[in-house]
Write a structure and sequence with these properties.
The protein is α/β, with parallel strands linked by helices. The chain folds into three domains: 2-56, Alpha-Beta Plaits; 75-291, 3-Layer(aba) Sandwich (Rossmann fold), CATH 3.40.50; 298-305 and 359-516, P-loop containing nucleotide triphosphate hydrolases (Rossmann fold, 3-Layer(aba) Sandwich).
Length: 518
Amino acid sequence: MQVIDNTAVHMKIPSNELGHLVGHIERCEVLRDDGKFAEVMVYWGIKEMQRLIKVYGDAPSPMFNEYDWPGMYTPFVHQKTTASYLALRQRAFCFNEAGTGKTSSVIWAADYLINQGLVKRILVICPLSIMYSAWQADIFKTAMHRTVGVAYGDANRRKKIINGEYEFVIINFDGVGTVSEEIGKVGFDLIVIDEANAYKTVTTKRWKTLAKLITPATRLWMMTGTPASQSPMDAFGLAKLVNPIGVPKYMTSWRDKVMHQVTPFKWVPKATSQQDVFNALQPAIRFEKAQCLDLPMVMYQTREIPLSPQAAKYYKVLRDQLLIEAVGETVSAVNAAAKLTKLLQIAGGAVYTDDREVIEFDVSPRLNALMEVIDETNNKVIVFVPYTHTIKLVARHLNQQGVINEIIEGSVSAKLRSDIINKFQTAKDPRVLVIQPQAASHGVTLTAADTVVFWSPVMSVETYIQCIARIDRVGQVNSMTVVHLQGAEVERRVYQMLQGKVDSHEKLVDLYKQELGI
């Protein structure tokens, strides 16, 4: 296929396929037909190319030529390619690696389809932690001329947003079931699933609810950086939604195709399973960070995770207590830092009492967000956790989820620390290091990881920069991602201070006063 004068696509096809092509596409012209091969010119429009894909599986996208790519930033080449690929396909997977900007690619593709009159409303289903910080923020930056509503809160608020006139509606996974009837009535033209592995199991209520919302006319794009990363079985649920003809009707038949039973209770992947999974998860596009030569080396993400009711309650109690104590008091930088630390500890999940006992809070939303980040990369991850008692909480959860991890904190001996780092750099496991920032913020190379997660913010700009420098140094071959987890206002303020490289005693006092509103 060759695009001629940005107007038409020139094709040479077998003569016996000519009738099929002309039957599918009206705006085409036969230039020559010798009985064996025919030359055809097809109008280079989005509808014609979409039909061409149904016949031949591929076609050049007119989006490159027709679209202005609005937004605050110039898209990277791989983002344009991804957006153009999705825009041509009614159902498709986007397997671009985390940190490659696939959210913006999807927004551009959806915006282009709105411009073409092919889509009116888009439903984005994603984790709670990225509804605002990723999707809403990226729509504001990428397609600021479009309206966006976040369907979060009680059922009435969700219904109001869904029944409104927003072009983009964002909702979290578990919220879909609450208002599935309203979603079905509205009939969104395009449904986008971010972190699509949440829908890998067909027996879950979540999967069944989504399947009922998808009609033959619904466009569906599913996104994840790690498709079927745990088992070939994980591909079945995703393929049943996007490419149902690519897998058997029943899950047991798929299991027999890709897995081999070695004991009554143990199944292992067959040698052919990787190719079977690849074939099932089509059509798909994937860019790894290493392929995206125009990406900045370090990218930053924020995941907004609301405090659990329990943590929010005690956070408010402590904040009110600090406000009472602050009346008439001269606040020093040392006092401000100590009191801010208490608030940060509660937000992070565990705090010391005056008797040096540890009280743990429900931080399951933050733990879920951490697992989302880990699941979105095929490489290793470092989690910086400032407080010793919270480190144990995080490591315990990773163990429960089957994620092999090691801890580095102040009490770990220098020899054991060296052994852990060597294993992390040279062996398959551990996959995750949970580190107290002060214990490994200088002189340590951890380039086996390409992702750094701050469970809570640190209180020093120097420490923050040095933590990131553990992966951003000689030996790193991938683009890197730094993720901030936040849920309390004090965390937002400290992260802003860190990213602004503001590190002064006066700033801590100001931050403390801002938090208390004094």
